[in-house]
């Protein structure tokens, strides 16, 4: 049977304003501020023993996995500069730098 009165006092509405977005670091790959969609990516794949996660835009994560194999990602680990040394990735980051944080597009075919 339901209680007539709440056990710990009246219910308080703790609604947050929509303008308050929790502070998250910028995208790990491109450095742009993150939009509404955030992907928590394992720079070293879980299948290769990776435990750390970094915040990324979905398009950045899709492009990263389209251009690198798990073995290559394991070798680069958390070194963004080594990943950006690849011409395809540098070209992508330069292109996406001008886009809105919530911009999304379908990734190109895998370049492996």
Protein described:
The chain has 112 residues and is mainly alpha-helical. It has a domain at 39-96. It contains four helices and two strands. Strands 1-2 form a two-stranded antiparallel sheet. Helix 1 (58-67) runs antiparallel to helix 4. The longest helix has 10 residues, at 58-67. It is extended and about 65 Å long. The model is unreliable at 14-21 (pLDDT under 50).
Short recap of the structure:
This protein is mostly helical.
Q: What would you call the shape?
A: extended
| Radius of gyration computed on alpha carbons | 20 Å
| Whole-number mean pLDDT | 81
Distance between the termini: 62 Å
Give me the number of helical elements.
4
Beta-strand content: 5-15%
User: What would you call the structural class?
Assistant: mainly alpha
Question: What is the β-strand count?
Answer: 2
Q: Going across the major beta sheet, what is the strand order? A: 1-2
Low-pLDDT parts are 14-21
Query: Main sheet?
Result: 2 strands, antiparallel
Q: Output the helix-strand order.
A: EEHHHH
* Proportion of helical residues: 25-40%
């Amino acid at each position: 049977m339901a209680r007539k009165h709440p056990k710990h006092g009246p219910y308080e509405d703790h609604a947050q304003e929509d303008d308050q977005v929790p502070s998250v670091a910028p995208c790990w790959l491109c450095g742009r501020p993150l939009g509404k969609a955030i992907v928590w990516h394992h720079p070293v794949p879980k299948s290769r023993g990776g435990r750390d996660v970094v915040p990324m835009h979905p398009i950045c994560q899709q492009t990263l996995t389209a251009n690198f194999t798990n073995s290559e990602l394991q070798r680069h680990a958390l070194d963004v500069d080594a990943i950006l040394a690849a011409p395809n990735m540098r070209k992508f980051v330069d292109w996406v730098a001008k886009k809105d944080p919530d911009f999304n597009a379908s990734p190109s075919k895998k370049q492996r």
